[in-house]
Amino acid sequence: LLLFKCTELFQKSNINPIYHNGALVNFIYPYSILKPANVTATEEILRLANQIRVKPVHFISTLSVFDLSKYSQLQIIPESDPLNESQGLVGGYAQSKWVAEKLIMIARERGIPVCIYRLGHVTGHSKTGIGNTTDWLSIMIKGCIQLRMFPELDMMIEMIPVDYVSKAIIAISQTKSSFGKAFHITNPHQIF
Question: Which of 63, 79, 90, 70 is closest to 186 using CA atoms?
């Protein structure tokens, strides 16, 4: 129903760019459960972008598409990486976003102007702190405070305030030279 209303809106207005941030984020669910929200919805967005007149698509993705052992050895992952390998990608979320990105790349080859924004862990607003309090990192931090203990983690976590992320996406999306490229929006200062 929502997609139908969006299609109707695009047909009747001059709305041009599509910012596709819709996703089901869950690190436990398998690919089969996440596919409708993360892959099939992306297919529908690309169909919508091609109706009446071509509309640019700004696809919000994740750095999780690089969770392969191949990438863990690298200091820098190039934004231009074609994501040729998915074998060894762990978890339905990362797998479904990888497939969705490949659809976006195919659309780019077929002439739809696209940008991919790969985000790290998005946290609350830098001034107000307002953000998602039910994601895994927020729950872990709350647990650490309550327990007055901190787990030993063999991983680095970077956090990016939501206001920074939204401003970066808007600024990049308004630059015509950004089309056809991917952008990693991350914090170079990691914690844990």
Answer: 63
Cβ atoms of residues 163 and 111 within 8 Å: no
CA distances for 107 relative to 37, 54, 112, 128, angstroms: 18, 11, 6, 38
> Using one digit for the tens of pLDDT, what is the confidence trace for 88-129?
788 999 999 999 999 999 999 999 999 999 998 899 999 999
pTM for the predicted model, two decimal places: 0.86
Q: Taking a C-beta distance cutoff of 8 angstroms, is the pair 114, 108 a contact? A: yes
Segment 122-178, tens digit of pLDDT = 999 999 999 988 888 888 889 999 999 988 877 777 889 999 999 999 999 999 899
Strand 114-119, strand 157-161: pairing = unpaired
The two structure tokens encoding residue 16? 């041009």
Q: Is the dihedral of CA 11, 13, 14, 20 positive or negative?
A: negative
Distance CA 157, CA 182 (A): 21
